[in-house]
Amino acid sequence: MLQAENIKKAYGKKTIVKGISFSLQKGESFGLLGPNGAGKSTTISMISGLVPHDSGNITVGGYVIGKETAKAKQKIGIVPQEIALYPTLTAHENLMFWGKMYGLTHGEAKKRSAEVLEYVGLTERAKDKIETFSGGMKRRINIGAALMHKPELLIMDEPTVGIDPQSRNHILETVKQLNETGMTVIYTSHYMEEVEFLCDRIGIIDQGEMIAIGTKTDLCSRLGGDTIIQLTVSGIDEAFLLAIRSLAHVNDVTVQESELKIDISAAHHEKVVTSLLAKAAAHHINLLSLQVQEPNLERLFLNLTGRTLRD
């Protein structure tokens, strides 16, 4: 469905995207993770033909972006970060407008508008102006506009930013259903949990480069399958540290003031926790908190980049 090969983009002397490559099979759901400014939006703007790429090759559904861009765009529905709706028009009027922009006839657009409104759960608000809608409802109509021409590839750029939990859940379920019907999805976000819920494979972008790509299991395996136990204690002595380091399945212990990070083999974390509690009691150490952090995308991102996803 999509092939991106070594695509690059610079503005002046600043290179925003530095040779990204990836491909998607038809019906796949692919997540692009990265902090703000990582190059996610620029990447999908090049894929959708909205921004010309400086070098590299992009094909969508067999059509080459830059040579057959108009044909490629017919296969793409794009949901931008910003709301792309006319506030003084009704929901139905907005969908009719965007349907016709995609080349639908009046009759086709009218029929499709009714279908899309039902799909996004806003049939009862069809005749209401967009300016009366909540942020979450606007987001849902924004998605509806991208669905009017029944695209084969749906590109969504941070579609849940700044909305209420109910609308967020509705959007996530809608995207899940669309993908299950065979629609290919690219979903960009800096919310790990959304990408984990929706996507078959995940690409992590940082500073304009694709630094990791694979399934969640593949990516998390890069952490070696280890679990981190984080302890906060009232006081630490050398005897207690020595006792912890001597425990079976403990790989490493780091200390920072009153916090201990204990790297252990993931399969044995329950045994280690039990032993830690026993050692703390034996050494009269007061435990203030204990957290178990299993291998996850958040930890992988921190491991690869030295910062958290939301930095």
Structural summary, described in words:
The protein has eleven helices and 14 strands. Helix 3 packs across helix 4, helix 3 runs parallel beside helix 5 and helix 5 packs parallel to helix 6. The radius of gyration is 24 Å and the shape is elongated. The chain has a six-stranded mixed beta sheet with strand order 6-7-8-3-9-10, sandwiched between helices. The chain has a four-stranded antiparallel beta sheet with strand order 2-1-4-5. It is α/β, with parallel strands linked by helices. The chain folds into two domains: 219 residues, P-loop containing nucleotide triphosphate hydrolases (Rossmann fold, 3-Layer(aba) Sandwich), CATH 3.40.50.300; 69 residues, Alpha-Beta Plaits (2-Layer Sandwich), CATH 3.30.70.100. The protein is 35% helix and 29% strand. The mean pLDDT is 89.
